[in-house]
Recover the amino acids of this structure.
């Protein structure tokens, strides 16, 4: 009888094992995950992980040799993998995907500064990697993951309860940091810079062509994140002030176009009476559009920027259009707030 029982248990175990489904993309993410739980976006030799391609053994070897130094939240790294793994778990119930996602969440909690900010890389602190980084939505992507964990939204309800409690605290610290880093102009809140000194929380420069400035695209992402939160006086003032700044500093009558010439991108600013755009960067004091160049110089005339940087970087866009004209009015209406 015992023998039959043992055989039956073995068959059940085999059947259960066979029922564990696998997701091709998630499987690759398991392999490329770093020991500390994060993921990298680019190695020192500029090689990158491409999930559209088969597993690259040589690349994997480089990643393992580089270790945790490659772990980052830049360019959607780590947040992208966590989100994908959670989705994969929701459809396959493969426990390895949830385990990996939770390890990634623990990495985000580990890398957060006490002041609530997030560095671009962790533990690598070279150059500008240790700065509190809004650039390319790095910090907001990380906070959005933790917000979903804390609130159990978007399939994150399966995450361990201890991580949920820690994520609630991390999100509140992140909001506090956001409110502290909103740039004041003569005492009036405007929008945010791309990156900040991790100790003083003062705006800082990063790459040579990314000077101290107000950053429109990233600030739109910050406002959207704040609009997801419960409304209190501080959050309300922050959102309203940022939207007011966007309205006051839009550029009317111009469009920004990208075309291909001999396989290369050519970016041009052209008159267009029906178009409204914003510059990517604005002077932190005067609100004049500004442009950084490879040599570290700052230009206030777009046409003075070197051809390589003028065409190799996106300097204008309709960044705040949807926020100002659609999302903000809906937020006011939903929360029964007047626009004054």
């Amino acid at each position: 009888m015992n023998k039959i029982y043992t055989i039956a248990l073995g068959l059940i175990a085999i059947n259960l094992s066979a029922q564990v489904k696998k997701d091709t993309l998630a499987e690759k993410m398991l392999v490329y995950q770093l020991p500390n739980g994060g993921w990298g976006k680019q190695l020192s030799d500029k090689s990158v992980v491409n999930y559209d391609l088969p597993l690259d053994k040589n690349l994997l070897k480089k990643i393992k040799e580089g270790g945790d130094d490659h772990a980052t939240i830049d360019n959607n790294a780590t947040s992208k993998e966590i989100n994908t793994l959670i989705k994969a778990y929701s459809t396959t119930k493969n426990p390895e995907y949830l385990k990996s996602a939770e390890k990634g969440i623990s990495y985000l909690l580990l890398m957060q500064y006490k002041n609530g900010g997030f560095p671009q890389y962790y533990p690598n602190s070279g150059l500008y990697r240790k700065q509190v980084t809004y650039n390319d939505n790095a910090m907001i992507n990380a906070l959005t993951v933790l917000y979903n964990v804390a609130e159990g939204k978007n399939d994150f309800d399966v995450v361990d309860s201890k991580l949920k409690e820690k994520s609630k605290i991390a999100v509140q610290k992140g909001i506090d940091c956001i409110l502290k880093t909103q740039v004041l102009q003569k005492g009036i809140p405007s929008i945010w810079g791309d990156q900040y000194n991790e100790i003083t929380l003062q705006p800082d420069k990063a790459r040579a062509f990314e000077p101290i400035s107000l950053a429109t695209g990233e600030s739109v992402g910050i406002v959207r994140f704040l609009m997801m939160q419960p409304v209190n006086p501080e959050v309300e003032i922050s959102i309203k002030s940022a939207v007011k700044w966007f309205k006051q500093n839009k550029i009317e009558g111009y469009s920004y176009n990208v075309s291909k010439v001999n396989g290369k991108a050519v970016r041009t600013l052209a008159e267009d009476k029906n178009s409204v755009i914003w510059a990517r960067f604005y002077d932190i004091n005067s609100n004049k559009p500004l442009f950084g160049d490879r040599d570290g110089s700052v230009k206030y005339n777009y046409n003075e920027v070197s051809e390589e940087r003028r065409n190799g970087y996106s300097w204008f866009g309709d960044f705040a259009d949807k926020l100002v004209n659609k999302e903000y009015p809906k937020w006011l209406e939903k929360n029964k707030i007047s626009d004054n």
